[in-house]
Specification:
The complex is a heterotrimer of chains A (347), B (379) and C (264).
Chain A lengths: L8 H9 L3 E4 L10 H16 L3 E7 L3 H9 L4 E6 L8 H15 L3 E5 L2 H13 L4 E5 L1 E4 L6 E7 L4 E6 L6 E5 L16 E3 L12 E8 L12 E5 L6 H14 L2 E4 L1 H6 L19 E5 L5 H4 L7 E6 L6 H4 L2 E4 L2 H17 L1
Parallel strand pairs in A: 1-2, 1-4, 2-3, 3-10, 4-9, 5-9, 12-13, 12-14, 14-15, 15-16
Antiparallel strand pairs in A: 6-7, 7-8
Helix pairs in contact in A: 4-5, 6-10
Chain B lengths: L6 H18 L3 H7 L4 H9 L18 H14 L1 H21 L2 H12 L5 E4 L15 E5 L2 E11 L7 E7 L9 E7 L5 E6 L11 E11 L3 E2 L5 H37 L1 E2 L2 E2 L4 H30 L4 H30 L6 H11 L6 H12 L2
Parallel strand pairs in B: 1-4
Antiparallel strand pairs in B: 2-3, 3-7, 4-5, 5-8, 6-7, 9-10
Helix pairs in contact in B: 1-4, 4-5, 4-7, 5-6, 5-7, 7-8, 7-9, 7-10, 8-9, 9-10, 9-11
Chain C lengths: L1 E6 L1 E3 L4 E4 L2 E4 L6 E3 L1 H17 L2 E7 L5 H10 L3 E5 L9 H15 L4 E5 L10 H9 L3 E11 L2 E8 L2 E8 L2 E5 L11 H9 L3 E4 L12 H4 L3 E6 L8 E4 L2 H14 L7
Parallel strand pairs in C: 1-6, 1-8, 6-7, 7-13, 8-12, 9-12
Antiparallel strand pairs in C: 2-5, 3-4, 9-10, 10-11
Helix pairs in contact in C: 2-5, 3-4
């Protein structure tokens, strides 16, 4: 067992020798899941501040199609390991391969998307490398004085943001919350270096086997876990209004919630209730329609990252809480929004 | 003198609160409206030993101390006073006398089923002509061969409709008022034992209060608790114990009123402010909170004295009268704070208001409690 | 069969104070509970041991008040409860925490399964489980929703990024569990009474578990928290007026800006 210390004296020297901002390619759900592209975009900013390059680590079997996408979205170097052994995501064998790459090429920053897999895989890598890892970051910057990564990680289910630093251990690792960064526009003219490293497959054979993998059938997501929520209030008028919200939900991959009046009236089920006596939600995006903004409701939506509100009444309390408010009839506004969304996805 | 709860008491409170909020909270208003005893929740409570809070471990109970028992009743009552009442009465005045006055044989016979909730207990003293004047019971328990034959009518029996085991206060010697009363343990499925009218009462409606009728109901002589004539003594001592549980129940109701009032006062806006900003309301809340604290501490003090083996008659009466009147005051003020909405079923405060009133009446009216306290003072 | 469940005591709800422009976590007067997912972990350990025989250990690293969490574990039915309490552990990040837990587990001896909750409600990292497995040199699998079979290896089902996976892993192994795995049993009052009256919580310090102090606490951590901030205060954002179509277009742009949909 290694007795490597994270703060050993030789670590500072080693840290200085590390170069490169790496991004782990989580491609399993690409095209819908774009977290790798988002992190590549931020990676370019970080690399510029560190005067270094962006590398992307691509593991899998028959995954070269993704290489072009990653280069088009910002990678300078592609570390590609293709093998049948990597055909299914497997935390054991992926840890082994990635750690070999890190030990060989010594990046100074290594970013992983905070997908379920990323959040179980990155800690294992960090431990094997005896380095620090911050989870589910919602911001990353380079400290101008110390040239180290400032990692902003939410705690207490988003009630507080912790800015974390990893001064000497390398690489500085972070998992990044999907949707935090904006992907760059693709540029298929970009060029990058392709490296196909040699892997020692005997070092740590996998102790697990993925027997079966199948895409989960879509079932109702708990409002509390949903990344995008649409909430309807009294202003939605009735069951028909909630039907409209349901259709919008399908277009955006969003769950539909409600305030008390629709639930009391029976326009939707009681498990959809958001607020003080219902559920507290913390989505990336909340679109709240025809809701007045009573405090019994708004206490349940405080931790939403971004709130868009639509209400006929310009003095509605909800506009005090929303990041963007639209004064108008929710039915009409949503109707036009859905038309635009449908046109853009099928156009 | 340590006023901090022990770690065990903190765990007991959290466990009871979590259960009450998750399992009873969602149905509390409905079961009150429908006057429905929630058997499915009660089944869960049985497995967790709500029906054997202080019964010794050897008989299948939890063996908790009295303060812990109070905490459980308080937490149940905070969510649903009716369920708090069921547990308080079962543990406080049905199980308790058997545990204290029963022979080893009787304890082995009756306690395990009571502790696991297989039988819910009822305490049957009150009759049409015997309320505060408890010795005026007309129910008789006459020896015949190896049996006692019971005849009579008991009313306002808490848990009455669902009770499996009833403690009947009956005259074994009808000639002697004070020394002729005894306590007989009766399984409610015995021939001659039947349910009378189920009461349609104001509050705690999910608790099935009813009357019980005995017509030549026979039980073996060994169902007599203590000796013939011990009824008065057992009654007084049992009520001392039961009053602590009722006080805990009232504390729970008062606490619910306080929390509901604070919540409403922060939300409700009038004259461009939450009404919590108005001094009048702040006075109400401050008084409510002070009285709830005082009621709780009085209750724990009585519980503590009991567990230490001290005489606690006066303290039990004090906590019962103070806590029940606190609950009523808190409920009245609570409805007032809620204004018009407080008078409707949109908010739970009207239920607490209806629930609180009974605590001033049963297990000894407030007037009787004051007599008990005065008597102790003027000895 | 020996199962070790790692649990953590966490504040029931977040409480902060702002002092001199800095946000600090308030501990005084805030009630503590067993981390909710750890209750599912305890339930998993107890039901596996009921089915397959064996004993269940509950282990927790924390200051002395954490004894309460371990008493609750005893009340639920675990056989042995161990509190790892040592001042030097303060300030440990997940790297250091996983080291301390692994030393304690080595001190316990051989084991078949380690169970952790997938993440805590305070630090939310979900890192201790995988890092503990790595430290112990055993495989791990996270977010277990169903235990299919347990013989000389473990077969589980889990949901990972929208995929339902069936995974076989050799024992000894570590699993982290999700809410959907089970419904944690509530302790009975008799269980609580026994947990305090007749059972004990062992308290181990770093010396007892032969832990190297350089690898714990601040010294053993690679990361530290520079500062805490409240989430962006909700202030009134812009409010737009216009025709329904104009408003819809503005909202559409916001969806792009927020990375919900891709710009075309």
């Amino acid at each position: 067992m290694k007795t490597k210390t994270a703060k050993g004296d030789d670590n500072k020297a080693k840290a200085a020798a590390c170069r490169g901002v790496w991004v782990f390619a989580d491609h399993r759900n690409y095209f819908q899941d774009r977290v790798t592209l988002q992190i590549l975009a931020k990676g370019r900013d970080l690399a510029r501040d560190l005067e270094t390059e962006v590398g992307v680590v691509v593991l899998g079997h028959k995954v070269s199609e993704f290489v072009m996408e990653y280069v088009a979205h910002g990678a300078d170097i592609v570390y590609l390991v293709e093998d049948e052994r990597l055909a299914k995501y497997n935390v054991d064998i992926y840890t082994t391969v990635v750690c070999q790459l890190v030990e060989q090429y010594r990046p100074e920053v290594f970013l992983v998307g905070a997908t379920d897999f990323g959040r179980e895989f990155a800690p294992r890598v960090a431990k094997r490398l005896t380095t620090g890892l911050s989870a589910d970051c919602v911001a990353l910057e380079i400290d101008p004085a110390e040239k180290i990564l400032l990692q902003t990680s939410p705690s207490f289910e988003g009630s507080v943001l912790a800015t974390i630093v990893n001064p000497t251990a390398r690489p500085q690792m972070a998992t990044v919350r999907p949707g935090t960064f904006k992907e760059r526009k693709h540029d298929y003219h970009r060029k990058a270096r392709l490296i196909k490293p040699r892997i020692d497959w005997e070092d740590g054979a996998s102790r697990m086997e993925v027997l079966k993998v199948r895409k989960q059938p879509h079932r109702g997501v708990d409002l509390r876990e949903a990344p995008i929520v649409i909430c309807g209030g009294r202003g939605m008028g009735g069951k028909k209004g909630f039907g409209l919200l349901g259709r919008l939900g399908k277009l955006l991959g969003a769950e539909v919630g409600a305030t008390r009046p629709p639930v009391s009236e029976g326009w939707t089920e009681s498990d959809r209730l958001i607020g003080q006596t219902g559920k507290a939600i913390r989505p990336r995006l909340l679109i709240t329609c025809g809701t007045s903004g009573a405090v019994q409701y708004t206490t349940g939506i405080q931790n939403a990252e971004y709130i868009i509100a639509i209400n006929k009444d310009p003095d509605a309390l909800i506009f005090q809480t929303a990041d963007f408010g639209a004064v108008g009839d929710a039915h009409q506004v949503l109707h036009h929004l859905m038309m635009r969304l449908e046109k853009e996805t099928h156009g | 003198m340590d006023f901090d709860p022990t770690m065990k008491q903190a765990v007991v409170r959290r466990t009871a609160r979590s259960f009450a909020e998750a399992e009873i909270g969602p149905i509390a208003a409905a079961i009150d409206q429908e006057a429905r005893f929630p058997w499915d929740v009660v089944e869960k409570m049985k497995g967790l030993q709500y029906f054997g809070l202080q019964v010794p471990r050897q008989y299948g109970g939890a063996g908790l101390d009295t303060i812990s028992g109070c905490i459980v009743i308080e937490e149940l009552s905070r969510v649903c006073a009716a369920m708090g009442l069921t547990i308080a009465v079962h543990n406080g005045v049905a199980v308790h006398p058997i545990a204290v006055f029963g022979t080893d044989h009787q304890k082995k016979r009756f306690l395990p089923a009571l502790a696991r909730g297989g039988q819910i207990g009822a305490f049957c003293l009150t009759e049409p002509n015997a309320g505060s004047d408890a010795t005026n019971v007309e129910t008789t328990a006459i020896e015949d061969g190896g049996d006692l034959v019971l005849n009579g009518h008991k009313i306002f029996v808490t848990n009455g409709e669902v009770a499996g085991l009833a403690l009947i206060f009956a005259a074994t010697n009808p000639q002697d008022k004070k020394r002729g009363m005894s306590v007989v343990v009766v399984e409610t499925d015995r021939p001659g034992f039947s349910l009378g009218v189920k009461e349609d009462h104001c509050g705690m409606r999910a608790n099935p209060v009813g009357s019980l009728i005995m017509q030549d109901c026979r039980v073996p002589k060994d169902h007599l608790l203590g000796r013939p004539g011990d009824g008065y003594k057992i009654g007084l001592q049992t009520l001392d114990n039961g009053r602590i549980g009722i006080a805990a129940q009232a504390v729970g109701i008062a606490q619910a009123c306080l929390e509901a009032s604070i919540k409403y006062a922060k939300e409700r806006r009038q004259f461009n402010s939450p009404i919590a900003q108005f001094q009048a309301l702040q006075t109400f809340l401050a008084d409510m909170s002070t009285e709830v604290e005082a009621a709780r501490l009085l209750t724990y003090q009585a519980a503590h004295r009991k567990d230490k083996g001290h005489v606690y008659t006066s303290e039990a009466a004090m906590c019962k009268v103070f806590a029940s009147e606190t609950a009523m005051r808190a409920a009245v003020k609570g409805v007032q704070i809620h204004g018009g909405y407080g008078y409707t079923k949109s908010y739970p405060i009207e239920r607490y208001y209806r629930d609180a009133k009974a605590t001033e009446i049963y297990e000894g009216t407030s007037e009787i409690q004051r007599l008990v306290i005065a008597r102790q003072l003027l000895r | 069969m020996r199962i070790i469940v790692c649990i953590k005591q966490v504040p029931e709800s977040p409480a902060f104070e702002i002092e001199g422009g800095l946000v600090r976590i308030k501990r005084e007067g805030v009630p503590s509970v067993v981390n909710p997912l750890d209750l599912h972990a305890l339930e998993a350990g107890l039901s596996v041991s009921r089915k397959h025989g064996g004993d269940v250990f509950a282990v927790s690293m924390g200051p002395p008040p954490c004894e309460e969490a371990l008493r609750e574990a005893l009340a639920m039915g675990v056989d042995t409860a161990i509190l790892l309490s040592d001042r030097r552990c303060a300030g440990s990040d997940t790297l250091a925490t996983s080291y301390v837990l692994s030393q304690a587990i080595r001190e316990i001896g051989t084991f078949d399964l380690v169970i952790c909750g997938a993440q805590t409600i305070d630090s939310d990292t979900g890192q201790v489980g995988p890092q503990l497995a790595e430290e112990l040199g055993i495989p791990h699998i996270a977010y277990v929703e169903r235990i299919q079979s347990l013989t000389d290896h473990l077969i589980i089902e889990r949901v990972c990024d929208g995929f339902l996976e069936t995974v076989a892993v050799s024992l000894p192994a570590l699993i982290t569990v999700s809410k959907g795995l089970n419904r944690p049993r509530r302790p009975s009052f008799g269980g609580i009474q026994d947990a305090f009256a007749s059972k004990t919580v062992q308290v181990w310090d770093l010396t007892r578990i032969k832990a190297d102090p350089r690898l714990v606490g601040d010294d053993g951590s690679a990361t530290w928290v520079k500062h805490l901030d409240p989430p962006h205060a909700r202030k009134k954002g812009e409010v737009a007026t216009g025709s329904a179509r104009e408003l819809a277009n503005l909202i559409y742009q916001k969806l792009i800006d927020q990375n919900i949909i891709e710009e075309r």
